Amino acid sequence: MAVLSSHLRIVLLLAVVVGLGLAEPRAALSARIKDIAQVEGIRPNQLSGYGVVVGLQGTGDGQQALFTIQSILNALRRRGVLISVDPRQIRVKNAAAVFVTASLPPFARSGDKLDVQVSSIGDAKSLRGGTLIMTPLTGGDQQVYVVAQGAVSLGGGFSLSAPGASETSGHPTVGIVPDGGLVERELPVDLGNEGKLFLSLHSPDVTTANRVADAINVNTRAEALAIDPKTVQVELAGNGPIEAMNALAVIEGLQIATDTAARVLVNERTGTVIMGQDVRISPVAIAHGALQVEVKTEYGVSQPAPFSDGQTVVVPDSQIVASEGQKQSLSVLRTGVTLGQLVSGLNALGVTPQDLIAVLEAIQAAGALQAELVIM
């Protein structure tokens, strides 16, 4: 008989300023505009392409990956090497077909270099020691923006095998080519088009958007208006990218007091509870009972009948016994209770992570939780 017990952890992230009492009024947290918003139109673009990694030490694609063999034959034909043979009769273990991906940053100029990632799409065992041959990377418009080529680095991953044993570390079929991408085509960015900029908040909030607009109006010559909880429109004093750059240099450094809605995030699978400091509860009484679950497992042997084709197997016989303690305690929480007081009160009741989740759900169902409860 085996008794299995599991203890989940509670992770509480308290968004409070160190040194402030929990019962005191919340101090506004300030942040730079560049850390909480981005300029619409200034963003990276995803690129991808199909390529082949060569020079592997017998760890490439097998004979079943016909697309790898066909790719190599096509590359040889383009270079004047004419081969007339059935691709299924060719075995190339030193090459592997890969998808190549990269992120083209905004304002990238022709000739700039960037890292690219290669991922095997066949049955290759490892890309260690390989070299990516010239691969064009295209965007969503099917235009070539980057050409990638170079040695593949696995960053410590390896795959070793021997008769009857194998060892793998990391992901040996995924690697990067440092500075292997060369920018061939630039992405046009019309900064400050028609004398306007649009700031997009990472976390939409009405109060924060209005504070951003007010800070811009007070500290710059531009005129800002929060047109929705996520977007702030900025009217520049003049047209053109130079005026936009000068305005952004000032706007990005402005400090504003951010504001967020009170929210409680609960992950029932891991027992994780994340709560912000703005969480308050109305007067409510909580009764808590202890719950104990015991799993008992006994192993038996299933013997097949004589002269049958059956096999002797071990069969587990599990029993689950749940019991709830009879002793209960009642705790009354006053109005305006803070996060720290709530957690202290629940800890005093001796709740487990699952119990805490159940209590929070019950408080919300009673209409006493002054926050949004998000079940992940």
Rg over CA atoms: 31 Å
Q: What is the H/E order?
A: EEHEEHEEEEEEEEHEEHEEEEEEHHEE
Strand content: 35-45%
Question: How many domain modules?
Answer: 3
Please give the share of residues in helix.
Answer: 10-25%
Which class of secondary structure composition applies to the elements? alpha+beta
Mean pLDDT: 77
Describe the model.
The structure is a single chain. This protein is α+β, with helices and mostly antiparallel strands. The chain folds into 3 domains: 2-24 and 263-303 and 313-375, no CATH class; 30-41 and 196-258; 45-183, no CATH class. It has helices at 33-36, 66-78, 206-219, 241-251, 339-348, 353-365; strands at 2-4, 29-32, 37-39, 45-54, 95-104, 113-120, 131-138, 144-151, 158-162, 165-169, 174-183, 196-201, 223-226, 231-235, 255-258, 263-267, 272-275, 280-281, 284-302, 313-333, 369-370, 372-375. A 6-stranded antiparallel β-barrel has the order 4-5-6-11-8-7. A 4-stranded antiparallel sheet has the order 3-12-14-13. Strands 1-19-20 form a 3-stranded antiparallel sheet, with helices on one face. It is flat.
